[in-house]
């Protein structure tokens, strides 16, 4: 259906979502220093939503500036816990701390996407899903984490909604593709309109 698109991300999950929707792409990671950008934006008191939007745009624009006339898709997802930005864990100890922070609480998963051409954004969209985590003991959280392989843990933040992670939540309101990192319905609408 759609091709000649570059995905500015090494996320296998995002590539799979695109391909399941007949959008075929080449992958070219942006290699943006996300931690540095996040810290800079946090210093400016930016909200998690603004951080997500900025990172998606930065990734898309960086790859787009090297690929003239091609459509480049950049994306970013963050957890917003009552205004606090929660990033992907760097190790298992950090993953446990994140789960303890989210334990029994409601939070938002924000996914932003940006389409760029010739180094500039031409379209963007941000979607939010609301999730309420059940109450667990620390031991239960440790048992849950022990079941999650590293490849999944570091790719999906601390939960994989289409797998074992679903058991963590008492309530999920929103699009599962958004939770997995790509609000595909709006992306498809946009790409189909501009063909």
The overall pLDDT, averaged over residues, is 91
Order of helices and strands: EHEHHEEHEEHHEHH
What is the domain tally? 1
Broad structural category: alpha/beta
* CATH architect. name: Alpha-Beta Complex
Q: Which CATH first-tier class would you pick?
A: Alpha Beta
Give unreliable regions as ranges.
none
Rounded radius of gyration (Å)? 17 Å
> Could you say which overall geometry the principal axes of the C-alpha atoms support?
globular
The helicity comes to 40-55%
Ends: how far apart? 10 Å
Number of strands: 7
Give a quick account of the main beta sheet: strands, pairing sense, barrel closure.
7 strands, mixed
CATH topology: Maf protein
Total of DSSP H or I helical runs spanning 4+ residues: 8
Strand proportion, as a percent range, falls in: 25-35%
């Amino acid at each position: 259906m759609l091709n000649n698109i570059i995905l500015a991300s090494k996320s296998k999950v995002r590539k799979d979502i695109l391909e399941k929707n007949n959008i075929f792409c080449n992958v070219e990671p942006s290699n943006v220093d996300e931690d540095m950008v996040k810290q800079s934006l946090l210093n400016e008191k930016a909200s998690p939503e603004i951080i997500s939007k900025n990172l998606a745009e930065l990734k898309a624009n960086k790859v787009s500036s090297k690929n003239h006339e091609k459509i480049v898709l950049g994306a970013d997802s963050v957890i917003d816990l009552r205004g606090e930005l929660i990033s992907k864990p760097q190790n298992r100890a950090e993953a446990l701390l994140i789960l303890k922070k989210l334990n029994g609480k409601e939070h938002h998963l924000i996914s932003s996407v940006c389409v760029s051409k010739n180094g500039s954004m031409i379209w963007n969209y941000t979607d939010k899903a609301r999730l309420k985590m059940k109450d667990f003991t620390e031991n239960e959280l440790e048992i849950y984490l022990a079941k999650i392989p590293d490849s999944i843990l570091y790719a999906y933040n601390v939960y994989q909604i289409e797998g074992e992670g679903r058991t963590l939540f008492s309530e999920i309101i929103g699009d599962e593709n958004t939770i997995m990192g790509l609000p595909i319905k709006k992306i498809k609408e946009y790409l189909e309109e501009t063909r």
